[in-house]
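Practice record 12: protein with (2S)-2-hydroxybutanedioic acid.
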Amino acid sequence: MKKAFLSITAAVVLGLASLSAQAEPITVKFSHVVAENTPKGLMANKFRDLVAADPALKDKVVVEVFPNSQLFDDDKVMDAMLLGDVQIAAPSLSKFQKYNPQLLIYDLPFLFKDIAAVDRFQQSEDGQTLLTSMKDKGYIGLGYLHNGMKQLSANKPLKTPEDAKGLKFRIQTSDVLAAQFEAVGGVPVKKPFSEVFTLMQTKAIDGSENPWSNIYSKKFHEVQSDITESDHGVLDYMVITSSEFWDGLDEDVRTALKKDMDEAVTYGNEMSVKKADEDKQAIIDSKRSTVYTLTAEERQKWVDAMKPVWDKFKDTIGADLIDKALKANE
Ligand code: LMR
């Protein structure tokens, strides 16, 4: 009798324990390196809020966002994801060379004429295939997010490629970007985003390339006297997660999370257009930095100097893929 009572009690305790284990929501940590008032920051917060309001995910998933490299820099976040220390990140497309060098396509200077062309390529079959191209390394791309076209900055006006000669430019971890600055006689220095302001302030670097929202939100315009509106390349993101985490989710949870992510990305993309305009204007209005618009002849000189970089990476990226990306300009 006593034995039966004990085993019933044990069963009840175990049952309650497993019930409470089931009730524990999954925490999804979303780590990124930029400020909250940027396309990526706004997208991440939107995703968190959509998940919180989603009846399909109520009590099942909680998203925590860590902006400003609070949790990881981009060079650490990929490993952290495989270890399960973070579930979602959205590194710039320039940071995936080690995982799939074909993604270097996005760094080729003067390949895309504008963000609409970038978008067309991303949404094409080839662009979508790139999203799932790192599965064997343990990563799944959930979508692309825009930031915008990049502008050049330094402590002197950069009107022609000769102006860049001998200057140290901070770059992201991409060999195409290194080759791009070498092509104009610059010295590329690979450094994490979190260090850029200090590197500029202490003059450890002379210049950099960034979209308007990164320049403004990180106050780079306060430590760079000149910005050239060059639109010479793109800085966009891939939202990624680990295959182990993603495939391990219940199907209904995965479907709901993907829906919320798609909605957040659409919102982030709308914001990217708005932020690019607003932040450029705010930089001009601040008068901390002079924004220079290239003449058509000056721009052509940058194109002529930088475009030979394509040839160097043609075999790595694939000439076919480059041709298809070019078609997105039409
Ligand atoms: C950079 O390192 O410059 C960018 O990747 C930062 C970002 O996420 O926009």
